[in-house]
């Protein structure tokens, strides 16, 4: 009896790993399906009629301040930028100059599906200039010619928002960083 | 001589073992395999998607790249590839070679088949929200192809607006992810 007891105590008990392995092997394909290969993000876009009811309230805007009314029209040959009804780069004495873009293409010979043909850096510099003059403005109206691809529209919104703008941190803290320029885009079909 | 004795001893021992318990059973060592699998599971758990909406672009669709970092919020996804518009896992409209919607399916910028499906979905969502005593978000997520034409995008947005969706999110891939 005593001998039997001692053999039971001394004998090594091996854990049965097979059920655990089965679960693990089932978990792998399940997790692979739910895995984020590319990180998705979202750009909040406001259509024109809802512009006044944008989710975030405008921060202490001075009543006497004139609205900037920044409008960007994406053309096949560049950006047409206008603010307060005056097109940037228009001939002297004229409000608009439909023949010329305000910001010409960075690569004029590149095809339309080459998204880097536009001068986004110049557009961001222009936006920074306007932001300095109108620090409380956050809205920009964007329109485009029918053939303009979505990637160009997205990159334009990026340039207007500012390359240093991080809205993720702002959504947590509730305060929009100063690096963010015009981060509330309005998509307009008929803006010129 | 010594070798012969040693071989004999070995053979005797083998015979004794065989007569005792038959052939020896080999056991698989699973510990190292467990280690590898555990590491893979932890890695996959770390990369587990936490977005409320699972975005699964259709075959051949290239989602535009952006520096935007706002998370994708809950909403109804509309996939607009170079060939078709998909809503609620159903291909609603085919696009032609130039990336436009067939003009017979469009009425004053409203894409009729898409409008019908979206309006039906909106009614259902409103009823569900009412039953759960929640506010209907009326949010739509536009997952477009990078080559999607602006005119088609505007038509889709207009149609969504007609179906009472008032908030729009453009889904993009984070450039630095």
**Strand and helix order of chain B:** HHEEEEEEHEHE
Question: Major β-sheet of chain A, in short?
Answer: 6 strands, mixed
Shape of chain A: elongated
| Strand order in space, largest sheet of chain B | 1-8-7-2-3-4
Percent of residues in helices of chain A comes to 25-40%
Q: Indicate the proportion of strand residues of chain A.
A: 15-25%
- How many DSSP H or I helices of chain A? 5
Q: Explain this structure to me?
A:
The complex is a heterodimer of chains A (192) and B (177). Chain A is of the alpha/beta class and 192 residues long. Chain A is 31% helix and 17% strand. Chain A contains five helices and seven strands. In chain A, strand 3 and strand 4 form a beta hairpin. In chain A, helix 3 runs parallel beside helix 4. Chain A is elongated, with a radius of gyration of 28 Å. Chain A starts with a helix and ends in a 5-residue tail after the last strand. By secondary structure, chain B is of the alpha/beta class. Helices cover 39% and strands 19% of the residues of chain B. In chain B, the strands form two sheets. In chain B, strands 1-8-7-2-3-4 form a six-stranded mixed β-sheet, with helices on one face. A two-stranded antiparallel sheet of chain B has the order 5-6. In chain B, helix 3 packs across helix 4. Strand 1 of chain A pairs antiparallel with strand 8 of chain B.
List keywords for this structure.
heterodimer; A: 192 residues; 6-stranded mixed beta sheet; 31% helix; 17% strand; elongated; B: 177 residues; alpha/beta; Nucleotidyltransferase, domain 5; two-stranded antiparallel ribbon; 4 helices
């Amino acid at each position: 009896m005593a001998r039997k007891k001692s053999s039971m105590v001394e004998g090594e008990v091996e854990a049965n790993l097979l059920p655990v392995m089965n679960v693990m092997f089932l978990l792998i394909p399940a997790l692979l399906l739910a895995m984020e290969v590319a990180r998705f993000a979202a750009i909040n876009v406001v259509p024109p009629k809802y512009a006044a009811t944008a989710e975030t309230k405008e921060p202490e805007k001075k009543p006497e301040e004139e609205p900037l009314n920044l409008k960007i029209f994406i053309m096949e040959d560049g950006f047409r930028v206008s603010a307060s009804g005056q097109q940037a780069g228009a001939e002297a004495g004229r409000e608009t100059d439909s023949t010329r873009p305000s910001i010409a293409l960075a690569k004029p010979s590149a095809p339309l599906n080459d998204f880097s043909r536009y001068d986004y850096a110049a557009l961001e510099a222009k936006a920074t200039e306007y932001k300095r003059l109108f620090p409380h403005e956050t809205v920009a109206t964007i329109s485009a010619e029918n053939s303009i691809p979505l990637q160009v529209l997205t990159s334009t919104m990026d340039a207007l928002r500012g390359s240093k703008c991080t809205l993720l941190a702002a959504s947590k803290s509730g305060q929009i960083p100063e690096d963010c320029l015009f981060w509330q885009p309005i998509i307009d079909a008929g803006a010129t | 001589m010594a070798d012969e004795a040693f071989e004999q001893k070995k053979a005797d021992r083998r015979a004794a073992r065989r007569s005792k318990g038959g052939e020896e059973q080999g056991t698989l060592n699973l510990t190292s395999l467990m280690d590898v699998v555990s590491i893979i599971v932890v890695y996959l758990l770390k990369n587990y998607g936490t977005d409320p909406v699972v975005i699964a672009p259709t075959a051949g669709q290239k989602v535009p790249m952006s520096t935007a970092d706002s998370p994708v919020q809950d909403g109804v996804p509309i996939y607009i590839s170079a060939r078709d518009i998909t809503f609620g896992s159903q291909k609603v409209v085919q696009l032609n070679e130039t990336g436009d919607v067939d003009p017979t399916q469009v009425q004053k910028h409203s894409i009729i088949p898409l409008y019908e499906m979206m309006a039906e979905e909106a009614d259902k969502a409103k009823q569900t929200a009412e039953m759960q005593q929640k506010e209907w978000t009326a949010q739509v997520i536009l997952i477009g192809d990078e080559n999607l034409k602006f005119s088609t995008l505007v038509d889709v947005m207009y149609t969504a607006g007609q179906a009472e969706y008032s908030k729009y999110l453009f889904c993009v891939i984070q450039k630095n992810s």
